Amino acid sequence: MLQAFTASLLLITISELGDKTFFIAVILSMRYNHRIVFSSVLAALALMTVLSVLLGQAVSLLPKVYTHYGAIALFLIFGVKLIVDAVRMSPNSTEEVVKEAEETVAGQTPQTSIPVFGKILARYPQIGVWVQAFVMTFLAEWGDRTQISTIALAAANDPIFVTLGAILGHGICTVIAVIGGRLVAGRISERVITGIGGVLFLVFGVTAFFQA
User: Fold this and answer.
1) What does the pLDDT read at residue 20?
2) Contact 157, 61 (CB under 8 A)
3) Predicted TM-score (pTM) of this structure
4) Cα dihedral sign for 191, 197, 203, 206?
């Protein structure tokens, strides 16, 4: 249980720093109320975590030998891929991620996020901001490496502690993005973070192999 909690906490915290969803939270927190942005972003990430854990539990219904070695293979493949990506990244990779996040925020308003509730959102702008941040974060996180890693961890470990560790990791990153994002954003190297994430994936893959 401790291993599941620690693994999910470390993987999510390292992988999420400097990610697209991280910079979406940074940009939104510069424009809107911090509490609204924090609660909506964390709610979206928590929902994504729960869904990922449920998918991982569905995968765990397969024979244990398949899920165990499948998770190991996934960690090793992701680890190698992230390290290769880090080596190939340009020094301006962080700026590219920030630009992509800015384009995502600029392309969506509360009304375009959920058109059906356009009148309600126009009347209650705080709800509109909350919905906007929630939808953008949820969609940006779908298919991300943190979601895949959560599924893999939940397939081979205790789902409750994987969920707790992942949500805590998302919470830490969201706090950093909302409160100190403006100061931290310019000092985060997407290249370094990606490389560290790749090393962590390899470490957990090798550890899981020898623990078999």
Assistant:
1) 75
2) no
3) 0.74
4) negative
